[in-house]
């Protein structure tokens, strides 16, 4: 057989293509799995979650980002209520800070969210072409594999 029929291959432009991909690696991690995932050359961004001291340990830098509470569908601070490209603008501003030397020169950006926010976050990332032109989504665990 020449072709594999059951392969789940995604052609999403958001996916990181490997070492030849010049974009910044973007990892999506559950807040439940973040301990032990820290990388000194990475920037960790906790989305709508206040990290514990243990969750912050070992990262190159840590940021928190919460969504505006107005206009939210169910409570405000979850990534799935993101609207109007606000997350995309925030991610682009991180690259600008990196280029200007105002934050750690990160090779990987880890977005850390609640498990129930994952689907909305993926939709927000996929809908912003500027984000996926600068970042490439890399799968980091079976729980948060790329379903692009």
What's the helix and strand layout?
Elements: E1 24-30, E2 42-47, H1 53-56, E3 61-65, H2 86-100, E4 108-113, H3 118-126, H4 129-134, E5 135-138
Structural description of this entry:
This protein has 148 residues and is α/β, with parallel strands linked by helices. It has one domain (24-67, 76-138). The protein is 23% helix and 19% strand. The chain has helices at 53-56, 86-100, 118-126, 129-134, and strands at 24-30, 42-47, 61-65, 108-113, 135-138. It has a five-stranded parallel β-sheet with strand order 3-2-4-1-5. β2 (42-47), α1 and β3 (61-65) form a beta-alpha-beta unit. The protein is globular, with a radius of gyration of 15 Å. The protein starts with 23 loop residues before the first strand and ends in a 10-residue tail after the last strand. The model is unreliable at 4-9 and 142-148 (pLDDT under 50).
List keywords for this structure.
4 helices; 5-stranded parallel beta sheet; 148 residues
Can you summarize this structure?
With 148 residues, this protein is an alpha/beta fold.
Distance between the termini: 27 Å
Q: Which sequence of SSEs, written as H and E, runs from N to C?
A: EEHEHEHHE
Number of strand elements? 5
Find the structural class using helix and strand composition.
alpha/beta
Side-by-side strand order of the widest sheet: 3-2-4-1-5
Helix proportion range:
10-25%
Radius of gyration based on Cα positions:
15 Å
Q: Tell me which oligomeric state these chains represent.
A: single chain
Sequence stretches where pLDDT stays below 50 over 5 or more residues:
4-9, 142-148
By DSSP (H or I, 4+ residues per run), the number of helices equals: 4
Overall pLDDT score: 79
């Amino acid at each position: 057989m020449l072709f594999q029929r059951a392969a789940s291959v995604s052609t999403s432009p958001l996916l990181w293509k490997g070492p030849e991909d010049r974009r910044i690696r973007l990892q999506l991690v559950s807040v439940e799995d973040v301990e032990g995932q820290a990388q000194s050359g990475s920037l960790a961004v906790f989305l709508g979650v206040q990290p514990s001291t243990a969750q912050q340990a070992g990262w190159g830098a840590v940021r928190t980002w919460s969504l505006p509470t107005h206009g939210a569908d169910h409570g405000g601070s979850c990534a799935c209520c993101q609207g109007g490209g606000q997350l995309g603008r925030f991610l682009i501003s991180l690259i600008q800070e990196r280029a200007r030397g105002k934050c750690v020169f990160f090779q990987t950006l880890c977005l850390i969210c609640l498990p129930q926010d994952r689907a909305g976050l993926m939709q927000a990332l996929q809908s912003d072409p500027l984000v996926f032109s600068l970042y490439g989504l890399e799968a980091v665990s079976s729980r948060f594999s790329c379903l692009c």
